[in-house]
Amino acid sequence: MSTTTVTPLTTADAEILVAAAGRAAEAAGATVSVTVLDAGGHLLAFRRDDRSVLISGETSTRKAYTALQLDAPTAELVELVKPDGPFHSLTTALDRPLLFIAGGVPVHRDGRLVGALGVGGGAPEQDHAFASAAVAELAARD
To answer: Distance from first CA to last CA of the chain, Å, rounded?
Structure first.
């Protein structure tokens, strides 16, 4: 039996993700909050642009948590939780609230889930694009 050790998401990785998402948002003229969680759901990094709406801090964190718990981009989950969707009750099933709005993306390393990134404050499609760009930049450095 072979075992593969996967390097966990580090604070340095989190800083790369926050900076990359921030650059993507700035290039698009958006002001956002960015949250990075490790594989256990613990906060590794957080940044809220001082010009972004206050609720973006909460939405970025909930998007990251949702992407982590379901190991899927939140953009891919939106249809599943609509009233006629197969997971419609998931939005209220847990004590810790999930948020099914695009902008949360899981972070994988060597095929394993190591954390998640959430972006809030722009339009949902923008937040997803900013988060995806940041994850792609981190992956290119690995």
So the answer is: 25
Element (H, E) at 131: helix 124-141
* Dihedral (Cα; 22, 28, 29, 31), 10-degree rounding: -40
What is d(CA 120, CA 60) in angstroms, rounded to the nearest whole number?
4
Distance CA(2)–CA(67), nearest Å, equals: 29
Rounded CA gap, 120 and 116, in Å? 13
Nearest to 137 by CA among 15, 8, 17: 17
DSSP label at residue 75: G
pLDDT digits (tens, 9 = 90+) for 84-142: 888 888 777 777 778 999 999 999 999 999 999 999 999 999 999 999 999 999 999 98
